[in-house]
């Protein structure tokens, strides 16, 4: 069967499945709409959390990020998984015991202050909205590549699908579709990885393949990779390139940012019991780890394959480079999409792929008659998208990867949209403006807020602000410096009062924003930065992306100092904290 | 807070502190700060520092969460603060 037909069948089939689930899992109460009635089994919730968490970026871009950054990309692997340890031990069980619907609701009640609740809503909406733009873009790109429709149509179709199951089913519909989406995406990711690992190392487990010897007995994979790319002037794959301080701080920022992201936290409100929340975090990390421990193998193996395909013989040998006219069909296919771009600079009809920024090697290459790197564009996304073709896998695997990429983007978008719409209908509307609203009307408001959020996200996906790529760092920085410390002190520091918490959040948020803006421009407007974004200008050499951890520290410090100077929280709040610290008496879904 | 609840909370904090020390050691210490030192030890074709940074830390995180869940459930029972048995 033709590849394009297969892709339509796979993608169409998964979409029918998602819509079927949406009709089956309609929400009829606010409890079902916000937290799936708190009746989700911990393993099922773990799976849904994994799909919620792993976005188009994890699925499509991460392996490529590792392929081109080698060891330095470890910060993402550790940062985006280590956060679950913090979530499981410091937040999830206690927030589940508290037993309400949203993150700002906890902050508002714990700090007995509507101001605190509104500040939390603002942090949540900024963090989630910036994230969802990237997802919508991912949906558009995936559709564009696989279904050969244009970007806008792709985003519109994606919006339509999310609309059906998120508006109808709320958290309940989203949870069950996310479980289906997890299954699709994990098969799509691991099957090509198993084949590529078998081809290169003879070991079907990519995690073991990473440390194995190559099948032609020429040495270990990582040693050969280091050798191959350093021969072409690139830096060693396994060596550290950034500073240790920045690696530590970025890892920490990503970890506490992960633990503080509201769309992840609210997933733990859906399980029946406190002990389910603890176990569920483990299951979530297990399902995430299947992809996250496969990615380093995919990254290194894909880089190895790509480099060796182009540099097929000795470096410097005139016959050693791939003849462009004989390039494999995947090369031509992906050239059409613009992800690969070749320019025959020295006119020899062969492809030279090397690091011409490395002056020493560039001189040597000049001696070979090379006139600069001819692979002028190698998009990192190619590492996952073209993987099945590079390994000569059957067409159905390619179709599966298409469905997997879409599942990853849609599941994350839906989770984020729910976090946004529930904070609007529950925290702002019911919590602040219309406390007497009936449940039926609140449910309707929730659906409307969801529809509105989808429209805004779709619009921003089609017209992304110029800073779309940079805001991801901002989302993590915000969650790390504002939400996480407020939640943690709310549970572990009984005497923390409203003034301390509000000032702490504002100080953490403010310092992180200012630090990012100083180097990246105020509100990311190009040219409005006060200092050039280079290492010598950074405070203590800290890059803006890594500042979230420092912002969190500022939050803690300011909150504690102000708390000591102001009045202790009232007796009933201290009792509330004592109550959430013990599992006994956790109630089912309660709105108040 | 009464005495037993106090004891329960202290036991909880002790457990979490131990687990978070391990969390810190495998990721920040083994994976980043001591990476060069550990890379001198190789198992198969992979240096241990690199392995902890890209594989080992994630496996350890996983074990830590399940150990936490099991130990906390036991603590809940010991101090009689566990939830009712039947599932809804």
Beginning-to-end CA distance, first to last residue of chain A: 57 Å
Strand content of chain B: under 5%
Name of the level-1 CATH class of the largest domain in chain A: Mainly Alpha
Low-confidence stretches of chain B: none
Shape summary of chain B: elongated
Please name the CATH architecture of the largest domain in chain A.
Up-down Bundle
Termini distance of chain B? 30 Å
Kindly report the oligomeric state of this protein. Answer: heterodimer
The portion of residues forming beta strands of chain A comes to under 5%
Supply the CATH superfamily name of the largest domain in chain A: Sodium/glucose cotransporter
What's the CATH topology name of the largest domain in chain A? Answer: Sodium/glucose cotransporter
Largest sheet of chain A: 2 strands, antiparallel
Poorly predicted ranges of chain A: none
Provide tags for this entry.
heterodimer, A: 592 residues, mainly alpha, Sodium/glucose cotransporter, two-stranded antiparallel sheet, 23 helices, 1% strand, B: 88 residues, two-stranded antiparallel ribbon, 2 strands
